[in-house]
What does this fold into?
Amino acid sequence: MNMIPLADQAFKPADYKSEVKPVWCPGCGDHAVLVSFQRAMAQLALPPEKVAVVSGIGCSSRFPAYTNCYGFHGVHGRSLPIASGLKVARPDLTVIVASGDGDGFSIGGNHFLHACRRNLDMTYIVMDNRIYGMTKGQPSPTTEPDWDTAIAPGGTGLSPFHPLVIALASGANYIARGYSGDVNGVASLIVQAVQTPGFSFVQILSPCVTFRPDQQKSWKPLVHEASVPETDDPSVAARRLMSDDGFNVGVLYRGKRPAHDPKPLADLPPSHLEAEFAV
Amino acid sequence: MNMIPLADQAFKPADYKSEVKPVWCPGCGDHAVLVSFQRAMAQLALPPEKVAVVSGIGCSSRFPAYTNCYGFHGVHGRSLPIASGLKVARPDLTVIVASGDGDGFSIGGNHFLHACRRNLDMTYIVMDNRIYGMTKGQPSPTTEPDWDTAIAPGGTGLSPFHPLVIALASGANYIARGYSGDVNGVASLIVQAVQTPGFSFVQILSPCVTFRPDQQKSWKPLVHEASVPETDDPSVAARRLMSDDGFNVGVLYRGKRPAHDPKPLADLPPSHLEAEFAV
Amino acid sequence: MPSPTSTSISVVLTGSGGAGVMTAGQTFLDAATSCGLYGLMTRSTGPQIRGGEAAAMIRLAPHAVQSLDDRFDVLLALDFDNLQRFAAEIPLDRNSLIIADSGAGEPPAFLTESGAKLLLIPMAKLAKGIPGGRVSMIGLGALARVIGLPEQSIITAVENSIGKKKPEALVASAQAVKLGAESAAEFPQVGKLDLTKKPAGPRWSITGNEAAGYGAIRGGIKFVAGYPITPATEVLEWMATALQQCGGTLFQAEDELASINMIIGASYGGAPSLTATAGPGLSLMIESLGLAVASETPVVVIDVMRSGPSTGIATKSEQSDLNIAVYGLHGDAPHVVVAPLSIDDCLLTAQWSVHLAETMQTPVIMLSDQFLGQARVVLDKPAEVNFDTKRLTVQGVKSGYERYAITPSGISPMALPGVNGGQYTADGLTHNARGTPSSQAKDHIGQLDKRQHKLDAFDYGQHWAEIDGEGEVAIITWGSSCGPIREAIARARAEGVKIKLIAMRLISPARPQQLTEALKGVKRALIFEQSHTGQFWRHLRAHYDLPAEVVPIYRPGPLPIRPGEVYEHILQGVKP
Amino acid sequence: MPSPTSTSISVVLTGSGGAGVMTAGQTFLDAATSCGLYGLMTRSTGPQIRGGEAAAMIRLAPHAVQSLDDRFDVLLALDFDNLQRFAAEIPLDRNSLIIADSGAGEPPAFLTESGAKLLLIPMAKLAKGIPGGRVSMIGLGALARVIGLPEQSIITAVENSIGKKKPEALVASAQAVKLGAESAAEFPQVGKLDLTKKPAGPRWSITGNEAAGYGAIRGGIKFVAGYPITPATEVLEWMATALQQCGGTLFQAEDELASINMIIGASYGGAPSLTATAGPGLSLMIESLGLAVASETPVVVIDVMRSGPSTGIATKSEQSDLNIAVYGLHGDAPHVVVAPLSIDDCLLTAQWSVHLAETMQTPVIMLSDQFLGQARVVLDKPAEVNFDTKRLTVQGVKSGYERYAITPSGISPMALPGVNGGQYTADGLTHNARGTPSSQAKDHIGQLDKRQHKLDAFDYGQHWAEIDGEGEVAIITWGSSCGPIREAIARARAEGVKIKLIAMRLISPARPQQLTEALKGVKRALIFEQSHTGQFWRHLRAHYDLPAEVVPIYRPGPLPIRPGEVYEHILQGVKP
Ligand SMILES: Cc1ncc(C[n+]2csc(CCOP(=O)(O)OP(=O)(O)O)c2C)c(N)n1
Ligand SMILES: Cc1ncc(C[n+]2csc(CCOP(=O)(O)OP(=O)(O)O)c2C)c(N)n1
Ligand code: SF4
Ligand code: SF4
Ligand SMILES: [Mg+2]
Ligand SMILES: [Mg+2]
It folds into this structure.
């Protein structure tokens, strides 16, 4: 995906920025994701008012208000159903969902499964910092088993699970992983996610400097481009994703399923329905 | 898995049968699953009062009361958390969870993910009939996209998803598929599920004769033994399960993870905690 | 208004294991309808999913009926298997007639104890004699004959339902009906079915769940997300096809958490949206209903109540979700709760619900119940009502758009996505007028006040309640209790008792001024409902100044409220 | 009892961007505690997750205090960044003193408008002069000096908190504290801090959330499942380690639906079980709380309330979850709701909650709130209370075991898994005494009656309320409102006002007889609470016969209730 030179763009990244100051800690990875988002939108030349950003609750879920798009900051874990209803009611909008590993994979796990399966045309961005930032440091489903926290002293002892394989098995049509430190890389993944029909899932490794101070340094050297080109074969993708190291970034699966796009059969006036009741 | 001859068993299948008459339709696949369960328990020689059967809501979820074990018939979709709490509080019990494709994969999807991940030592049996039986015929996540129902006239248009891959990606330690028509086969899968440490998931194709009258005839010829021996390699299993036809029965994955078995560090009297408050 | 009892006939058809009771019941109702009658039909089944015992309860009259009667005139028992289970649901007396198969064996105790007459017909044997003959058709023939309904109407009804595609089946049915009728020919007629009155205009046959669905679509609903649950599923199933025809969409969600959030999302996008559920599902929607309150997103939730708590009895009626509907949200979360007052009123009330939700940008919960939702009624086509429903939106937006502006009405113009300059973020966090999160006292209180005010200041017009009659004693009631209560009141008035009826369609917010007005001159209020803890009564106590004397009358399901039961309470209640 | 105001001192520390306000506040409280004082500390922060503005509010006295005061004696502002945001939370007057950095620039308007004296100290500059010197330590030194607290106590407190491992840090701190004290040396002392009284016995420093956790463990809790949520997380975090020590287990669940069901499962297995949450989480537990009611499974749910509705303000207190806690379940679902009356009462009330849940086999919701939960109090070690808590279980079971037997008390002996012959299936479906699903009226009503009866017939003893004083006017209140109300009452009584206090620990079921008893001779009731719609007042109206004159007094969060505010209402309220 090549980027259009800035000067030629109908919209500039700044057009997608709101006046609200993020509550995020200085150095939080989410700041960079916000910049990637702005660049991606400008690249796609989407009028800000035609984009809706939906989220749940968490540091990462504060995202919508920092954009100059329409936003919905819902309740914890329920961003995908809100986005799904919105997309069906308003297929003309570009719908982006912003979430975190707690919001998206813990409390929101069921909607994740079913949004993948439903395959509506939308993009799901999960800022994964392997911790609950907003509530001050509890383990998420992607947290390492030995990460010590007050609520799980000595670690949970539970292996993290594989959100990308889950997405694949549930039917997502585009699966990618990015690293917030690579602003243009993430922007490109978002651009392609929006351009690929159906449900697109982008996991972004986005360090929490406050409750995971280890991440900012340790992740950078671990992150690497995926060593194989993207695939459209679900079983190949399943094998690869199941055994990857969690740090290979890029587009990892791009399917061929058309987006689900339910349409009414007719637009008759309600009175038409009365025939059924007449005796 | 060889079956012990009936005469040598300390317990008989009938010891696991309650006096309550099932509400199931004549011919429902769940009747057979109940028989398989009884045989498996007898085979395992588990005293009925040391077994707890937990379920949600649905035809299949009526299971517990038909056994002579301890039972909990909870609310729709929440059987796994009940079972998890019970197992932690009472590690001495054998915990079996009975569910359906609606109860387990639709409303209960999130607990499915997290119970697999948590890997407590229990067995999860899903009687999958690709329909909501109890509420009279609505599509479930495993229903074919063109299956016509009143709530989705002409079909949902959505592809069924892959519960076995989802279980694998989430961390289940034993994954098997059975067909209710094969009573001893299913019994054997249940026996092995109970014997394998950690979270065991058994999908049982169990026809709904009332709302899926197609299944009883059409499934029998489709069902076949898995053509390859079971694997303990998650990526191999991922590839296989992702591309299977949904009708290969047998043990499809058996991992090596030990069961999660949280234990307190000490058993001091509460007053011991007061030191922390003293100034 | 004369007491309807005198002119109606109540029959119940029972049978087990696929005897076809429900189909027969429907055929019977259709037949009566074609003769110009009005009617009501409810169903009751055993615990089995299929093939268990079943009962179809039908009441016919030359005018519309909205309640079951106190007793049945005729029980047509195709067999006696498990019939005992229905004992409490099938009141019979010495004036009743039982038509049963002469080979059915010993009748269950409650039949013999009732003192009812018994007409034994060899139904199974007669049916066997006809190729393709069905027992139920023999029974219907006999039934028609004893109540004076022309046999031909039954035969025509069968024809209309199975169509002309199966000529042999039609012939068999016709033969069976005739045989049945003949075998009852000697029996004196039961009741007086007046077939001379003809309906003045068009009639409808409709269930409350269908009426609710149609009312919602008339109100403007374009998007529905729902998760199946008894007894609300038919609202969703009916709407699925209807919306496809009328430019809308219905989604089966993965659970109720998803359905409520899907409709919030669709409504945020501008589509009037609805879900339907029952108690367990409503429980799961509670958190997000609060989000709809705080984000001021209009949504309609139809709760078709069943016996609770927990899973309770999915197939039986009760009015016990009032508490959760009115008080169930965390924090101070004002919203609207309404309830239909009859089966057909599900139409008006659903339509009104959409109107209230859209106009005030609020969630509206409509409390229907299993009786209202699943009963089928034949009545005059309801009058058309039109609300001028319009959501207050903005078009050209200048900078600094305030989504949650404090306005005199409390209602703030809403920007729909796509409108340039209207961008804002809807939020469940405490926010200021712009929608930006805030933890300042002035914003918190400002928005709490605004949201309460928009509901309190709204003009609900005459729809808040239906009030009729005068007297020093009033019955205050709501929802499906109204049917039997109206009938009991009619009986009491026919005997000279003066009593007022206040049937409340608007359950919350409270309308203290209106009720005080309505209660002028009332010294004693009988408060009537179908719950175990008097939820409605306590709700009234909490919010209204009631007359000095209050007589709360409440009991739970699963048995339906019968007019006679209410009538006794009225006679007690009007005593000085 | 003298008015505590006269003898207490209130100070507030503010600063932004990692100024270390919270640590400094804790150090200050520790220092005062070591001098034999009692105290209270609350915290307030801006919206930022880290590095935003923060305030530590501390009140010290020679006796325990359970409420903030009306005003602050001293504001120690380490800087002025965003301080304006706290304006409504920091009442100052002309008797107050502001200690600020002389280089901090223009003070925000509310400071100058307050008329408070200003003591400018070059704190930043002084700190720079010390290697490793911290501004906050300079500030604490000055603060200690102006209120008359020995500087050494601060230095010792720092030593105790950072330990002896960092000698340089200790030296720097000591130097800074001294420098700060010196620079305030010329300033006249603020307030009168009485350091002569010494505590008679051992004292505790504890938050309400810790107290609740400890009370729960004392009550016998062995299993906890929970999902993090402000301001309840600390209950879970504290219990995680505590349970590991005391033979229990804590699970972080995937969501609140899971946590409530996990504890139901564990409790079914015999382990007394608990979860803690806040409004949004409680909303998600509603359906399964109904299951606990119907299946008669004891569980305790602690709801640490915050400003609602929806996500609201997670960090601010409010008493607005009463409705959902009492009325939030669908169907008729009786259960217990209790509320602690002070920070340390969280201990007793949590312990009592376990007792009530286990004894009556019912869910118990304990309504704590952000103020009670997160405030830290230094007080005399609470008296030990022991309830004789025992779940009624069966051992040897004969055939035909009835899990849900109708007993005189309404409580039925429970078989725990493992007991031979006790096998039964717990169910949320309407069931008979055996637990077998039933849709018969007699079973439905039988079990509804039983479950209501077991709560109504129980002997709650004296714990249902705390009652003191006499008079024709009574304040009826609950929960965290009690702290400031008690203080206001003390002030009023000191001035000769006669007033009675009824502080209700048991919110539901209602105890009409007990309240009527307590209200003997009372002509007017002031009903006090922190909600926007008067939830407590309406609850009382619904269930109790109140005195002829009722004055409901309510307002929402986020600002804490202050004694002076209540005092004004009392003066108004006692007027004839
Ligand atoms: C129903 C509910 N439960 C719990 C919470 C508390 N809560 C807020 S954010 C959060 C976790 C957020 O974690 P994540 O999604 O990873 O976001 P991050 O802060 O790490 O970006 C939780 C548990 C809530 N707001 N609502
Ligand atoms: C919260 C809630 N929502 C919906 C229902 C209604 N309901 C009962 S069973 C069921 C589906 C059951 O389907 P499945 O698990 O596949 O079981 P089956 O009947 O097919 O065996 C539904 C939707 C309910 N009981 N509770
Ligand atoms: S707490 Fe962590 S995730 Fe939250 S804003 Fe700070 S750095 Fe980011
Ligand atoms: S409806 Fe289907 S799943 Fe339910 S009992 Fe009947 S056959 Fe079985
Ligand atoms: Mg996170
Ligand atoms: Mg099913």
Observations:
- Residues B 58, 100-102, 129, 131-133, 140 surround magnesium ion (ligand 6) (CB under 6 Å).
- The CA atoms of residues 221 and 272 of chain C lie 5 Å apart.
